[in-house]
Design a protein that fits this description.
Blueprint (H helix, E strand, L loop, with lengths): L2 H11 L4 H8 L3 H9 L6 H11 L3 H5 L3 H9 L2 H25 L6 H20 L2 H7 L2 H31 L1
Helix pairs in contact: 1-3, 2-3, 7-8
Length: 170
């Protein structure tokens, strides 16, 4: 059952009109109508108000409404991912300029390629639905994941540090 259907059911059980509910929430009747029809979804603050007015848990209000669950869980993922990718790109450019200023011997292809790989990995990891991933992982798969991650990152860090120090020595 969607949150709109639950709202309508609870409102009718209390004998309230859409206007009565809107007055109690200090919003327009049209907002209530749009929520009940499913053409829009309430904000987090609206869900909390509905929970208080109908004496229901927030969980029971939103659990059956997949659209609302998606809206609440994914509302910041895209912007967070974009910020991380942008930050990584800027950091890659700054590091490359720094290496050029100090005349560190490092191939542009290797540097940019490595930076793009790391930006892609970070972007991928931040775009995952971690709640869903969490439910499917076991302790042994997490342990193996850490071992593989360390096996990949240590050689990359060693390569970066040794390239940097050898470039400074020339």
């Amino acid at each position: 059952m969607t949150i709109g259907e639950q709202m309508k059911q609870q409102r009718k059980l209390k004998g309230w009109s859409q206007q009565d509910l809107a007055d109690r929430m200090f919003i327009s009747r049209q907002s209530i109508s749009r929520w009940e029809s499913g053409s829009s979804l309430p904000t987090i603050a609206g869900v909390i108000q509905l929970s208080d007015l109908f004496n229901l848990s927030i969980d029971s209000l939103i659990r059956g409404d997949e659209d609302l669950m998606d809206k609440l869980s994914a509302s910041h993922k895209i912007s967070k991912t974009k910020k991380i990718v942008l930050f990584g790109s800027i950091l890659t450019i700054i590091l490359f300029i720094f290496l050029m200023l100090f005349r560190v011997k490092y191939s542009l292809y290797d540097f940019v390629g490595g930076g793009i790989r790391w930006i892609a990995v970070i972007g991928f990891l931040t775009s995952l639905n971690w709640k869903q991933v969490n439910h499917t992982l076991t302790k042994s798969s997490v342990s193996w994941g850490i071992v593989v991650f360390i096996g990949v990152i240590i050689p990359e860090l060693y390569s970066l540090v040794s390239g940097f120090t050898s470039g400074l020595g020339h």
